[in-house]
Specification:
The structure is a single chain. The chain is of the alpha+beta class. The protein has 7 helices and 12 strands. The strands form 2 sheets. Strands 6, 7, 8, 9, 10, 11 and 12 form a 7-stranded mixed sheet that branches. A 5-stranded antiparallel sheet has the order 1-2-3-4-5, sandwiched between helices. The radius of gyration is 20 Å and the shape is globular. The relative contact order is 0.09.
């Protein structure tokens, strides 16, 4: 237990050092803004705010650390699902790579992005009272100003998966020994599915379906209209659960772009085993690039889903 704690602490301190170095290297001129916010105006939040939790994206190899300012932290401790104005969450996304001298662990290899959620009901009535700001590893927002509203709606649509948490994914982690982590509800929120004739799908999606597919389960709701690249991987667990539950392929497809995410039970080998646990073999495909007039590349992965 002590060794595990020391290794975990080393990873966290390593991440903070990588973050501090990246932030110190930012250019002196004011970085680009999104929704009126810049990275610099949040100051040394990594030192002054409360570290809420960490989250590892298995599909992208990205470690994410989340902080909350005093107002947001108080709401979390009170288990409030209605953060007051002035609450702010900050997230740092770090890429990881294997430590060559300790290959069973992954270590941070650089900051990929900074993300902020700012509570201001009056300013952001169309996105549940939350404003979003995203910056790359150099502290700049690279999207065009005219696209900021689109990007914000895409962020908001993703957070609509958890209305029962006040549209906030992060929950405080427990660092106390022998204390169980909080049990989180399934992140399905208000996501609903409808049954659709597979023949009515776009041809670029149809070609990825298993041979003989007649019907699919399609996500219905705000996700269809406000989709961005990151959503394609994040929605995967929800699609997998739906595919296993209904035995039909489950799909999120954008109404106005080539983006889509698709999961279905492997027709050639539906049963699998992972570390002695029997499960269901699932094929997952999703677009991995921003549409630019060409069809974006499609990633294909196979998972052994044992949690049913």
């Amino acid at each position: 237990m002590q060794r595990i704690f020391r290794n975990t602490s080393a990873v966290f301190f390593g991440m903070l050092l990588v973050f501090a170095a990246a932030k110190a290297a930012l250019p002196e001129q004011a970085p680009d803004t999104m929704n009126g916010y810049s990275l610099s105006q949040f100051g040394s939040f990594e030192k002054e705010w409360h570290l809420v939790t960490s989250r590892y994206r298995k599909d992208t190899g990205e470690m994410r650390l989340t902080w909350a300012n005093d107002i947001a932290w108080k709401a979390l401790l009170e288990k409030s699902t209605d953060d007051p104005d002035g609450a702010v969450f900050a997230k740092i996304g770090m890429m990881t790579e294997d430590d060559p001298d300790f290959t069973s662990s992954a270590v941070p290899s650089g900051v990929k992005r900074y993300q902020f959620m700012v509570r201001d009901r009056k300013k952001f009535p169309d996105t549940q009272g939350w404003g979003y700001a995203i910056f790359n590893g150099s502290g700049k927002n690279t999207s065009k100003p005219e696209d900021h509203a689109i990007d914000s709606r895409a962020c908001s649509a993703c957070h609509e998966m958890v209305p029962q948490r006040g549209y906030v994914f992060s929950q405080p982690m427990s660092l106390a020994l022998n204390t169980a982590a909080p049990i989180l509800s399934e992140a399905t929120g208000n996501i609903t599915f409808t049954t659709l004739d597979a023949a009515k799908l776009r041809t670029d999606v149809q070609k990825h379906l298993p041979t003989g597919t007649k019907q699919v389960r399609r996500v219905h709701g705000p996700f269809e209209k406000h989709v961005f690249v990151g959503t394609m991987g994040e929605i995967r667990p929800v699609l997998i659960r739906e595919a296993i539950r209904t035995r039909h392929p489950a799909l999120l497809i954008s109404d106005d772009s080539p983006l889509f995410s698709l999961s279905y039970i492997n027709p050639d080998k539906p049963a699998c085993e992972d570390h002695g646990k029997k499960g269901v073999s699932v094929i997952s495909l999703f677009t991995t690039g921003r549409p630019d007039g060409q069809l974006p590349p499609v990633a294909r992965n196979e998972y052994c889903e044992t949690a049913q």
